[in-house]
Amino acid sequence: MKTAKTILGIVLALFFIFSGVNHFTTPEMYLPLIPDFLPKSFVNGAAGVVEIILGIGVFIPAFRKRALLGIFLLMVAFLPIHIWDALKENPAIGTKTVALVRIGIQLILIYLPWFARKD
Description:
Elements: H1 2-25, H2 40-58, H3 64-87, H4 96-117
């Protein structure tokens, strides 16, 4: 089981590094999801930087568990944004169905780092 959790951690790390870089290369994908009362460019950039740092942290044995906990907390923090989007008449992510599926994916993204960090 430890090997599976290590592999899961690596997959999550790569996913979050890619996603973090994507905040800078394709910001138009993320900006519509950020509520108007927040500074969109700053929030998008900060999220990207945090995702990259946490992803890299998973590869450093001394920081692995803390980085996975950080990914868990970040995904919990993002959940209200996805719920807010799903409740809008025209979700930024597309249709209401896609927005609801995205909430399901978010719940999985909350669970996986929590699971991977446990011994």
